[in-house]
Amino acid sequence: MKLSSQPTGPRSDFLRTLSERGFLHQCTDLGALDSWLCSGAGTAYNGFDLTADSLHVGHLIPIMMLRWFQKTGNKPIALLGGATSRLGDPSFRDTSRPFLSEEQIMKNLIGIRRVFERFLAFGDGPTDAVMVNNADWLGGLNYLDFLRDIGPHFSVNRMLTSESVRQRLEREQSLSLLEFNYMVMQAYDFHVLAESRGCLLQLGGSDQWGNIVSGVEFGRRIGGRTLFGLTAPLLTTSSGAKMGKSVSGAVWLNADRLSPYEFWQFWRNTGDADVGRFLRLFTELPLDEIARLEVLRDSEINEAKKILADQITRLCHGADAAVQASETSRRIFEAGEVPAGLPTVRLPDSLRGDFPLVDAMVVAGLAKSKSEARRLIGGGGVRVNGGSVSDEAMQLGDFDVQDGVIRLSVGKKRHILLQPV
């Protein structure tokens, strides 16, 4: 079931777009899927578990796949795992996920919903996106009935050969029955969406290949239905390093978790070798324009990186946020200013009056620990309100507040505004 090439390439707009932009990795039957998509508007879904109140850049590839699916005249479904988030997907994880409360899952659902509203057009039309929650059908299942009706269609032998499960077992790491059932739940999701919404295609990252194939096989066994699965490669740099985190942590897609400026700056710092690929994956620029940009070299490639940052920030946070982030960066790096548009961190009640600089750096996310903060100060890389700092025991206080904030900088690219209590 690996991706197979077609002599003339895909005929459907969706698969041709994915092929040209580098999304295609694996497909259960590329030729049949292409024919189905050419026959009229199709319906596809991608699932997202509610393990945090925002998605991160690692989710951008499946989100962009759904966006292109809609832009090429089809109907996308964003499935939120209100039920499966309570189990935890074991795919390529070394440990079990912590249990989430119902309250936390609902909070996460609200935050993640905001992401999709920026990328997809929702409504009641034939190609309008819809959002569903698998808790609506999984939450009311009778366990004995489910085992009797669904269990016989799954082979434990087959499930044990799944790459993600096999790796856990080979490392002799615990794999609970709870997690083992995740594959069954995901396959059942596919069945429900096929039955209720005519959804015949499941999209996902390559780490979901085993789960997706199980859903395709389950659909054939239980209803004789032909379903399709298609995966995209996981997001990595040209060196093979997994993407998704910056020096200060995960690169979240919601502005309340990561400011648009920090998001913009993350993409501005893209490695030269990745610019063309990321422009194809994460922007809607014409391919000929991308071809022109990706061959730029030396200082000229920086303009391509700014375009990448502008385009993806515009998609994720809106045009105004992209313009402001770009202007903030220009004022910092070209004009030497530290403008007010920088990320702002409100200090906790514990840091009142005079407080250690190292504590403020940890709270602001500029250092992971006090010892790291001291090393940064000792190395001469820390500035307070533009002035270099060398005293590791420095205290901050009211006298450091300028226009209501204290400006902290580490190196040339990391800047935070501290807002005292």
Automatic annotation (TrEMBL):
Keywords assigned: Aminoacyl-tRNA synthetase, ATP-binding, Cytoplasm, Ligase, Nucleotide-binding, Protein biosynthesis, RNA-binding
InterPro entries referenced in this protein's UniProt entry, alphabetically: aa-tRNA-synth_Ic, Rossmann-like_a/b/a_fold, S4_RNA-bd, S4_RNA-bd_sf, Tyr-tRNA-ligase, Tyr-tRNA-ligase_bac-type, Tyr-tRNA-ligase_bac_1
Primary location: cytoplasm
One Pfam family linked to the record: S4
GO molecular function, one term: ATP binding
GO biological process: tyrosyl-tRNA aminoacylation
Residues that hold ATP according to the record: K245
Domain of life per record: Bacteria
Sequence positions that bind L-tyrosine: Y45, Y182, Q186
Reaction equation(s) it catalyzes: tRNA(Tyr) + L-tyrosine + ATP = L-tyrosyl-tRNA(Tyr) + AMP + diphosphate + H(+)
Residue ranges of the motif 'KMSKS' region: 242-246
Top EC class of this enzyme: ligase
Protein family (similarity comment): Belongs to the class-I aminoacyl-tRNA synthetase family. TyrS type 1 subfamily.
Protein name (database record): Tyrosine--tRNA ligase
The species this protein was found in: Rhizobium johnstonii (strain DSM 114642 / LMG 32736 / 3841)
